[in-house]
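In the design runs reported in the main text, the only information available to the sequence generator was the tokenized backbone. The following block is the verbatim input for one such run; it is reproduced so that readers can re-run the procedure and compare outputs position by position.
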């Protein structure tokens, strides 16, 4: 993992830390969810608007370090919006506006002194549809390293990233072939290799397996669990079995952009506190 003191001061303007406030009894989060893990990301009373439409309402959520946190909920409830708020990808949407706090290691990522490009180096993203560059497999992984000037030992870094993305065995002999010639599942693992090559702390994944067949899905699921040993993973999924299988913590968003319940995945699936959550996870709606 990154050797820069767990990211403290690594992102321009991210040097200050504020102490998290203690939580109140009516917070949607349940005890034990983080299992003693340090909080890497915390939203406090986060609202997101697209023009006059409010997509997220007062979201309080903590993301534990080196765990997989799944964001689940019906279509349009704001899962992707929350994910994009974390590394300020919503900045790229003209009408998007954020209120409240989104803390990365205690520093609000929306403070004026935060450089979003530097932030995204620390918080990488993998999208629903595999989107390799129309370049060779090697160049796909090398791209971010070259942009950041991390070109010493570049072949070794590329190899390590492909190994961590569980792709090396399939591409070792064809690194100069186009990334677009890989299968969909391989392309997605290539995108994961690209995202981790620059050694981020957090990986945001927006339905990374939804465009893949069952075999490729299973490989990506195994990979996500492995990646959590080195990275903090936040994954949006529509697939509740997948959330139950691979996540440590689950946050349930429901229509209207509300976070209804968040906590230990087993507790959420086996014994949810809210009827609405139970109805959703048992398939009564959504
Ligand atoms: N670029 C945008 N411009 C305007 N409104 C948007 C934009 N992106 C999302 N929205 C709106 O914000 C709300 C939340 O959308 P979001 O994509 O975050 O939900 P989601 O839970 O990820 O949905 P899905 O599961 O279908 O991907 C929806 O009402 C959506 O129409």
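Verbatim output:
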């Amino acid at each position: 993992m990154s050797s820069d003191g767990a990211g403290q001061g690594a992102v321009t303007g991210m040097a200050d830390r504020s102490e998290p406030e203690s939580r109140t009894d009516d917070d949607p989060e349940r005890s034990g969810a983080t299992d003693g893990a340090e909080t890497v990301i915390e939203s406090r009373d986060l609202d997101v608007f697209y023009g006059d439409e409010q997509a997220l309402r007062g979201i309080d959520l903590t993301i534990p370090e080196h765990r997989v946190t799944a964001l689940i909920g019906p279509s349009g409830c704001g899962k992707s919006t929350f994910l994009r708020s974390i590394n300020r990808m919503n900045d790229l949407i003209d009408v998007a506006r954020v209120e409240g706090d989104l803390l990365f290691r205690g520093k609000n990522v929306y403070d004026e002194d935060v450089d979003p490009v530097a932030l995204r180096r620390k918080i990488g993203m993998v999208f629903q549809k595999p989107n390799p560059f129309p370049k060779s497999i090697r160049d796909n992984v090398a791209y971010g390293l070259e942009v950041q000037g991390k070109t010493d030992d570049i072949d070794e870094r590329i190899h390590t990233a492909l190994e961590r993305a569980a792709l090396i065995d399939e591409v070792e002999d064809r690194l100069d072939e186009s990334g677009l010639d890989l299968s969909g599942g391989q392309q997605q693992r290539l995108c994961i290799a690209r995202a981790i090559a620059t050694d981020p702390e957090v990986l945001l994944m927006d339905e990374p397996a939804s465009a893949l067949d069952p075999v490729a899905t299973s490989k990506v699921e195994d990979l996500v669990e492995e990646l959590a040993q080195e990275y903090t993973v936040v994954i949006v999924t529509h697939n509740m079995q997948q959330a139950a299988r691979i996540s440590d913590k689950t946050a349930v968003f429901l229509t209207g952009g509300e976070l209804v319940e968040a906590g230990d995945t087993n507790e959420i699936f086996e014994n949810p506190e809210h009827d609405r959550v139970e109805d959703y996870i048992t398939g009564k709606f959504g």
